[in-house]
């Protein structure tokens, strides 16, 4: 089983690490990353991604695969979670100033929880809607609007920004 979504094809290894299982490869930009494979399971442990804008696409695919294909959760819930994970990843890439961040997806009875961990202890700040530029700054507003709850946990070496969504009937 390849793990790719229908119609999806990866043309070369990309850039993730699974909980300390580090198989280093050199990317063409000179940064050391771990080998990426589409079998990464963010529900089994933290999947570490290189802090680059293109990692948002991988985080979206991992989230969609886990929620829709493995857990068979409703389409609307999956689409909202994919959007929100993209926003959290965007914040981590843009503001954390680190080379890597982590993605973890958890499920418990009636809930899913998605966490994006980074080594910065700077807390995200939700701006008032009227103060937001049209092109950016709306990520936490979307997280606040579309999730049932969200927050930030300070960790010994960074933080975990997370959101939870209620799963009805699953």
How would you portray this structure in words?
- By secondary structure, this protein is α+β, with helices and mostly antiparallel strands.
- Helices cover 26% and strands 27% of the residues.
- The protein has a single domain (16-166), classed as Heat Shock Protein 90.
- The protein contains three helices and eight strands, in the order E-E-E-E-H-H-E-E-H-E-E.
- The chain is globular.
Output mean pLDDT: 76
Secondary structure tally, helices: 3
> By helix and strand content, what is the structural category?
alpha+beta
Question: How many strands appear in the DSSP assignment?
Answer: 8
Number of domains: 1
Which topology does CATH recognise? Heat Shock Protein 90
Rg value: 16 Å
């Amino acid at each position: 089983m390849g793990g790719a979504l229908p119609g999806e094809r990866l043309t070369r290894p990309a850039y993730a690490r699974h909980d300390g299982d580090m198989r280093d490869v050199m990317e063409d930009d000179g940064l050391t990353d771990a080998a990426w494979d589409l079998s990464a399971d963010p529900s089994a442990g933290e999947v570490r991604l290189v802090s680059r804008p293109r990692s948002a696409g991988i985080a979206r695919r991992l989230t969609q695969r886990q929620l829709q294909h493995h857990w068979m959760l409703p389409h609307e819930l999956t689409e909202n979670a994919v959007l929100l994970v993209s926003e959290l990843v965007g914040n981590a890439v843009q503001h954390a100033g680190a080379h890597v961040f982590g993605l973890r997806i958890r499920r418990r009875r009636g809930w899913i929880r998605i966490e994006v961990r980074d080594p910065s202890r700077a807390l995200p700040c939700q701006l008032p809607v009227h103060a937001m530029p049209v092109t950016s700054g709306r990520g936490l507003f979307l997280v606040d609007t579309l999730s049932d709850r969200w927050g930030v946990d300070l960790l010994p070496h960074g933080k975990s920004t997370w959101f939870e969504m209620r799963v009805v009937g699953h």
